Amino acid sequence: MNHPTRRSFLKHSAVLAATLPFAELDLRGAATPAAVSPPSPAEGPRGLLFDASDLPRIRANARHPRFATLWQSMHEADLAADRDFLANKVNLRNHVLDLLRVQKIMERACVLYAVEGDPAQLELARSAIRKMLEYPEWDSFLEGGRQIFGLQRAPEGSIALLLALDWLKGALTTAEVAAIEEAVATKGAPACYTAIYGMKYPDRVQGWGWNPRSDVKDFRHIDLKRWPLILNATNLKIIPTAALGLIACHFRGRRAEAAGWQELARSCARAFATIYGSDGSYDEGISYWGYTTLHMALFAEALWRTQGIDDRALIDYPGTARYALGMTMPTLPSDHAVANFTHVEGFMMPMVKPEFDIVNFGDANGAVDVSVAAWIGRTKQDPVASFVARDIGEARYLYGLIWYDAGATVAAPEPALLDQRMSNDLVISRTGWTARDSVLAFRSGGPGNHEHADRNSVIFKAYGERLLHDPTRAAYIATQPRWILRLTGAHTAVLINGQGHQYHDGSEGTNASWSFARVIDYRTGPGWMTVTSDVTDAYQLVNRSVARVARTLVFLKPDIVVFLDRVTLADAKASVQVRFQANNEDLAATLSLPGDNFLIARPRATLLGHVARRPGLTVRLGKLPLAEKDGSQPFAEVESAEATDHEILNVCSARPTGEAHGDLRLSRAGAVWRVQGTHHGAALDLTLNTAGPLPVITIA
Length: 700
Fold this sequence. Notes:
The protein is of the alpha+beta class. Strand 17 and strand 18 form a beta hairpin. Helix 5 packs parallel to helix 7, helix 8 (174-200) crosses helix 10 and helix 10 (235-251) packs antiparallel against helix 11.
């Protein structure tokens, strides 16, 4: 087996860098009158993800209700605008937006042609292919000031072009195929190889920096020096890994470098698999889980199909489908419009549709997609994964059309999944999986890429509404106003002297901080869940006087959440603030202070915060310091005046709008807190004994 060094690989690739002049090829004579019909596996090499025998199922999936919205959006695309963009508006220096748009046009047109045989889609696909190959470079990054390396555009573009060869098999000329292959081998493969080689061997990196020929003005201030280390544990490692792996599968036996490409890609995929928890959980957030796990699956599937190499168990795929299931949180749609915010020039921050809502810890901003769950259900014969593919989340990626099986055996989630403490210390407790069910999400655990300063923060959904909110669409750029949404003060969490726990300044991007929280107690029973998490370390990084910061939650299903926050300082007094964030993305939240309590009202439900009053305790309403154009994020805040020891008890109850909250009485005798009363027709008698380091909870 050939194992080229990085130097010999790049030298060889440079010799090959003159691609065939695709723009000068005659593209008019290759169209076939019918839809694509590639050869069967017996007649030639297998496709990377599908064969001719799969096309009837793919075409049936395109007509299936599960994909109706996706398919409609593809048909509604403005072909005239696409043609004008490709012919007149593409900036060959813009890799972030323009190259991505070209790729998406190509992918959509390829699939529409393969399914429906429309010659107009074929010509559009070929125009997009021609434009992709016209780009002299495929990404925005340089290693050692010379070699392009790719993290998204070059890897994604390479995968898309290779799959175009399968979607359009029989419709492209030999010269067209050769031009695509040469471009992938000389622009895509070196860029992917350089990226993952640098992450595997960061000590051998000369220096990562921005490509001066790429338009990246919104990002160029970000320091890339430590990126080979930082990105090694992020989704931006597996994207070029998978791409290099698919390139190797495509060129196996035809290019000498392919064996070395495959070896590096497989070693990096195996190493990256350890980033997942033993139960399949993932630290970067659920939308990045989808992006990452999709690429893990793409490489594993291509290896299996083309060579019989089985890497389809590198992670616990059934477990990771259950992680995705746990992170879903469908809500009811709002009658109020949600404002858009610009992420970078030309790109709006995405907003998850309510019916596909998620537990959005960190930067998570996309629904669970059908594709990975469908692949897991098919590959592992997992009926719960097939349930996720059929009933949970959104059909967003075209891969779902390939893998979805309408006849798969489906099973509803087992009851044990109603309460999950994941291996990364995220805790999710719920009453069910519909929009009207309750979900309590608790963010303990360690740092991760795309995280926020959100340790021990809480999201709570009941009666179809987000009632305790984690704001969405925080800025990725530290100089933008909505960067503030990343900080502790924007979460349902604790501040000490108005200050949150440690977080970075954004100079290296959205990388991980140093902040840890750890679940130290977790219990469940019929209709209840309790959890205690210690986050002392994270606050000590900014305040050496901190001796303890711990939060205990008691969830009495479906609609009572008890918060006990304990803060101790070793040698100085400090005030402590406990914030409760309202969901005001649609400007439909109202906050008030009835009596000694606080009330968060949404159109369909309300949350009443019952405050355990003690001397020195203040309840107020506030709002993050954002200009109107940047959004409105209100909160209720309970403050405990300066002291060395703080115990702050709040009990939040939820009810549908128009229905009364219960009469709850909060009291304390010595070290014992007591919550008594009735709510929703049921009696409540709860005690929390704080005499020891861990509260002892009794539910009568």
